[in-house]
Amino acid sequence: MKKVVGIRFKPAGKVYDFDSGAFVLNRGDHVIVETEQGLSFGTVAVPAVQRDESAAGVSGKPLKKVFRLASQKDLDQRNKNRKTEEQAHAYCIKCIKELGLKMSLFSVESSFDAGKLTFFFTSEGRVDFRQLVKMLVKELGVRIEMRQVGIRNQAKMCGGIGRCGREICCSAFIEKFGPVSIRMAKEQGLSLNPTKISGQCGRLMCCLTFEYEMYKNIKKQFPKIGETVTTKNGKGKVIRHNAIFNRIAIRLDDGQDIEAELNEIVKGGK
């Protein structure tokens, strides 16, 4: 049996499985682990659990191992890397302006050994950044990778406060983006005004997916919008659902609007 621990490298980032070996690790512990890019600094997100000897990663390859617990020297190295990232970000912005490139740089990440810098940016189209890379290599003296990402990834990496007053979901806990559609807003009876159902990234809010299935299941027993029903006040057509309170808004034949409990109406106008 192997002890498998979940390691996260970024806040709200994906959790990766590693072989913890003989280390006793608790949630929140800082560790140095082996990755395909070399040694990396991570944080324990899921405590170790016993797994069969044949345990392997998602790719089917044997799990990488936890190299050691992070020391004060490792923490100092991480802080030093952050300062390097800030300096590289400022210099890259300067170069982008000089070259007149149509790209928005929003983050720079350094490998743990400081041998590589990854620059994250967004752009409406493809960008020829070959000259930019040459300038960065000459100034910074490390390997450079330019990575173009979508606007939702930018919001996740930068963070922020949503219209609900809380930290935006993608930055707080969502590990992987799922599909979000306008149908989800319709199903929940929300305003279809783009400014009210869009997040900071300009796309539909991720939280529209949280209660979508619940609304679908509740409303299976509801008569459809426009269907004729009978109430104690007479016949009318369904104009709105109130799934949370199990009520239906009905416009009677005489033009009056009322609300009725689901168990108070008869479908089909009978």
What would your notes on this structure say?
There is one protein chain. The protein is an alpha+beta fold and 270 residues long. It has 4 domains: 2-70, no CATH class; 76-149, GMP Synthetase, Chain A, domain 3 (2-Layer Sandwich); 154-213, no CATH class; 222-267, SH3 type barrels, CATH 2.30.30. It contains 7 helices and 13 strands. The chain has helices at residues 72-99, 130-140, 151-158, 169-172, 182-187, 194-197, 212-218, and strands at 2-8, 15-19, 30-35, 38-51, 66-69, 104-110, 116-122, 143-148, 228-231, 234-242, 247-252, 257-261, 266-267. The strands form 3 sheets. A 5-stranded antiparallel beta sheet has the order 2-1-4-3-5, with no helix packed on it. A 5-stranded antiparallel beta sheet has the order 12-11-10-9-13, with no helix packed on it. Strands 6-7-8 form a 3-stranded mixed beta sheet, sandwiched between helices. Helix 1 (72-99) crosses helix 2. The longest helix has 28 residues, at 72-99. The radius of gyration is 27 Å and the shape is elongated.
